[in-house]
Structures are given as structure tokens and as C-alpha cells.
Sequence to fold (257 residues):
Amino acid sequence: MSTTPLQRFSEQVAVVTGAGGGIGAATAHRLADEGATVVLVDREEHLAEQAAAAIHAAGGRATVIAADVAVASQVDGVIDHVVQTHGRLDVLVNNAGITRDNLLFKLTEHEWDQVIDVNLKSVFLCSRAAQRVMVAARRGAIVSLSSRSALGNRGQSNYSAAKAGIRGLTATMAIELGPFGVRANAVAPGYIATAMTAATARRVGVDPAEHQQQAAARTPLGRVGLPEEVASVIAFLASDDAAYVTGQTIEINGGAR
Ligand SMILES: NC(=O)c1ccc[n+]([C@@H]2O[C@H](COP(=O)([O-])OP(=O)(O)OC[C@H]3O[C@@H](n4cnc5c(N)ncnc54)[C@H](O)[C@@H]3O)[C@@H](O)[C@H]2O)c1
Fold:
């Protein structure tokens, strides 16, 4: 079924959070293409079911668990279920994320808390649950979604703080988990065409296609990125091809500075 000759995840089990759309769905598809059994976790169960159906249609193995990754009991339940069902966990992709953009002087405490909880606390919760299994097995790879916005972006003080936090969390997880054969890395995408960036465009009153053209014009490669182009780097970091890579955050932004 594979669109790639690579089969780097044969016999492996991967959990992808926020797998109902965009980068998460593309990553789930890529890992399944390469032989993984993929567990798609999303708050929006119907979206995850659609993404799983596309994997099944391509001949891959996928199951769905509906959960909110910002809630510890639900996260622990997901990982327990995965281990009971599949007996192992090789890859965790911390992808679920949201934006609640506002200029600092208007940003509410609720908008701050929501974004920190879903984007940053969830990475702590999911990684803490996954490492119990991975450390015991003396192997595993965690890949988390940071963002170019970690460097600062107007209207995104909550989001940029969360995404910068993921860099530090990733570096620290690499130090603590490395001795047990578990690697932790992150990717920091620039502008990737998904529902998230389309929503950002509408919020600032710009048509999504026009918004993409504006982003493309300030990008050396002259275009915005595709979810599949993030998925391929995540797959590399999750695979044994990156066996000596840990604690890193890889920029995926078409050369934007
Ligand atoms: N699109 C970009 O340009 C871009 C750039 C840099 C980083 N990112 C990051 O990549 C990740 C994916 O972004 P995307 O553009 O594909 O977003 P998206 O909005 O298209 O998809 C996000 C998915 O996460 C799910 N989700 C949201 N909150 C959840 C929760 N609490 N529990 C479980 N699932 C939840 C949503 O239902 C959705 O299916 C995010 O972490 C985002 O911050 C995106």
C-alpha cells in the first residue's frame, strides 16, 4: 500500500495526538504508510475517524481514541489502553494544538490558560505517561510540535510562550530519558496550510488563499508548507534513522528567517 519504499515502523505502535486533521492526520498517515500501527487521538472523534478511514483505505492499520490531551486522567487512560491493546508503544507524536490569538492588552486569563494547557501541559502529560512504557522497554521516540512562533509573533503571546516551552521541555526530556534509550525531539514549522492557518487568516480578515500568498512572498522557497512536509521530518525523527539525534528542535519553514 505504501507511497514510500521506507518501512521504518514495521511492528511498531505510534500514538499521534490531534490526528484528526492537518499535520497530525498527515503524520498518522505517513507512519502507517511506513508500517506502524497508529493510534489517532483527538478531541473531535469524527475527524479522527475520517483520518483513520483514509489510512484503512490505503491499506494501513489505525485505531481511534477520543480524548482531551489537556486532561491527565484521559491521557493516562489513552496510554494504558494502547499498552493493553497493542502491548507496546514506540512513538509518541505530541501534535494537538490550538490558537486563541489576542493582543497582550486584551488577552484573557482563560485564553492564556487554554492555550498553555492544550499546547504545553499536554506535552508534559502525554510524555510522562508514554515514558513509563518506553523507559521500561529501553526504547522509544517522542516528537513534539513547537513552532516558528516560539520566536515571537504579534497576537500570540500565549501560543509563542507554549511553543517556546516545548523547546525547553524537549531538551530536558532528552537529558532525563536518554540514559534509558528514549529520544525526545521537536519540530518548529513555519506557515503550513491547514485549518489552523485558515482560521488565523479569517480572524485577521484576509481570505485564506491571499494569506498564504502573503506568507509565500516572505519565504525563500516561495511557497507555504504542506502537512506532508512536516510529517516526513517527524517520521525521520521518530525513526532509527535519527538514532543519535535527541534534544533538538528542527525548523521546517522554507528558509524563513
Ligand atoms: N499550521 C501551521 O502553520 C503550524 C505551524 C507551526 C506549528 N503548528 C502546530 O502543529 C500542530 C498541528 O497544527 P495544525 O495546523 O495541523 O492544526 P489543526 O487545527 O489543523 O489540527 C489540530 C488538531 O488537534 C485537535 N485538538 C485540539 N485540541 C485538542 C485537545 N485538547 N485534545 C485532543 N485533540 C485536540 C483538533 O481537534 C485538530 O484535529 C499544532 O500543535 C500547531 O500548533 C502548526
In short: The beta strands are 13-17, 37-42, 61-66, 91-94, 140-145, 182-189, 249-252. Helices lie at 22-33, 45-57, 72-86, 109-137, 157-177, 195-203, 208-217, 227-238. Residues 41 and 65 are 5 Å apart (CA to CA). The pocket of nicotinamide-adenine-dinucleotide is lined by residues 17-18, 20-24, 42-44, 47, 68-70, 95-98, 118, 145, 147, 189, 191-192, 194-197 (CB under 6 Å).
